[in-house]
């Protein structure tokens, strides 16, 4: 019995030595065009996704970066080329699922992230993931008018994207219809386009 206890203790000790207690620290610089600098004990070449959001100004930006020498850098971030509006922004850093990471990274964190532990590690559908959250402030007086303008620009940009997307979908569908039937001009393009626009209104 004593021998079995020792063996179990050794196995647990080895597991703890191999485990990685994930650490991430960040510092946001750059004023109203923020840059995110960070330090982590994740291995070199680990893919990270850096996300910044602020609902009031309809801002959402992302950057995919890699860890190098225990550090990472993302930015500068802008709102469509313009400075950020003053206010509080949410910063999230995630490590995508381990199976998508380079093999050198999987060796350290596990094929499914099973070697990672700590408060930043969460259970996902395909294994463990890392999720770090914090907030930062862009200095200045919050402007309701500027935030409203930013939201309106975002709505306009999304609408223009939807129009283009609908045209591309219907053009492709028309070509496929022509390849199948031998006469692409029988395709009801207007019906396809209007149906696509209806889907935008549902959203």
User: Reading side by side through the largest sheet, how are the strands ordered?
Assistant: 5-4-7-10-9
CATH topology of the largest domain: Immunoglobulin-like
Largest sheet: 5 strands, antiparallel
Coarse morphology: flat
Radius of gyration: 24 Å
Structural class by secondary-structure content: alpha+beta
Content of β-strand: 25-35%
Distance between the termini: 64 Å
Number of strands: 10
* Number of separate helices: 4
Helix share bin: 25-40%
Order of helices and strands: HEEEEEEEHEEEHH
Give the CATH level 1 class of the largest domain: Mainly Beta
Task: Write structural notes for this entry.
- Helices cover 37% and strands 30% of the residues.
- It is α+β, with helices and mostly antiparallel strands.
- It has two domains: 20-138, Immunoglobulins (Immunoglobulin-like), CATH 2.60.40.10; 144-201, no CATH class.
- The strands form three sheets. The protein has a five-stranded antiparallel beta sheet. Strands 2-3-6 form a three-stranded antiparallel beta sheet, with no helix packed on it.
- It starts with a helix and ends with a helix.
What keyword list fits this structure?
3-stranded antiparallel beta sheet, 2 domains, 203 residues, alpha+beta, 5-stranded antiparallel beta sheet
Give me the secondary-structure topology.
Blueprint: H1 2-18, E1 20-21, E2 24-29, E3 35-40, E4 47-54, E5 59-66, E6 71-74, E7 87-95, H2 103-109, E8 116-117, E9 121-124, E10 127-138, H3 144-181, H4 189-202
Parallel strand pairs: 1-8
Antiparallel strand pairs: 2-3, 3-6, 4-5, 4-7, 7-10, 9-10
Helix pairs in contact: 3-4
């Amino acid at each position: 019995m004593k021998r079995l206890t020792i063996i179990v203790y050794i196995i647990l000790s080895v597991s703890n030595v191999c485990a990685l207690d994930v650490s991430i620290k960040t510092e946001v610089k750059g004023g109203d065009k923020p840059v995110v600098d960070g330090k982590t004990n994740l291995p070199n070449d680990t893919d990270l996704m850096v996300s910044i959001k602020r609902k009031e100004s309809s801002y959402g930006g992302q950057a995919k970066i890699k860890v190098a020498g225990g550090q990472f850098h993302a930015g500068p971030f802008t709102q469509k080329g313009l400075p950020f509006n003053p206010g509080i922004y949410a910063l999230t850093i995630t490590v995508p699922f381990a199976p998508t990471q380079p093999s050198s990274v999987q060796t350290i964190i596990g094929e499914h992230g099973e070697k990672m532990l700590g408060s930043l590690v969460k259970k996902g559908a395909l294994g463990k993931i890392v999720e770090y959250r914090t907030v930062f402030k862009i200095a200045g007086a919050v402007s309701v008018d500027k935030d409203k303008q930013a939201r309106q620009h975002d709505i306009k940009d999304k609408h223009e994207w939807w129009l283009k997307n609908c045209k591309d979908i219907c053009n492709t569908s028309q070509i496929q219809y022509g390849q199948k039937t031998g006469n692409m001009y029988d395709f009801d393009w207007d019906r396809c386009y209007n149906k696509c626009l209806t889907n935008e209104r549902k959203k």
